[in-house]
Amino acid sequence: MFLVKPERRRLLQLAATVVVIALGLASRAFPQSLPDALGKYPGDALWAMMIVFGLGIVATRIRTWQLALWALLVCFAVEFSQLYQAPWIVELRSHTLGHLVLGSFFGWADLIAYTAGVAVAAIVDNVALFKRR
Fold this sequence. Notes:
The chain is built from six helices and two strands. It is mainly α. It has a two-stranded antiparallel ribbon.
């Protein structure tokens, strides 16, 4: 008899990704809807959540903690890549999509927001999106 590994539900992962993208864009479009003390960090946390759910669409069989670790590595890599300011990548980041994906300026506090977003997404993944058989 074969053991069937649990897996993520791709459709739910996709839905979570779309919802988080919408919330992230809304947090940037309507910052007045959020407390001033939070600044831009809800958008950063939501971006990290999107990375978790997006990776979950493809990585359906890895454990939640592994998914969270990979997502955190991606988030941190993108943030640290902002220290590189060559003209070609600055130009890429000046466009809306490039800015949304790659950011523009490095910030230590962003790493905290990403960690919080990944943690929340990992909880959601573990509770609601990971199917156990």
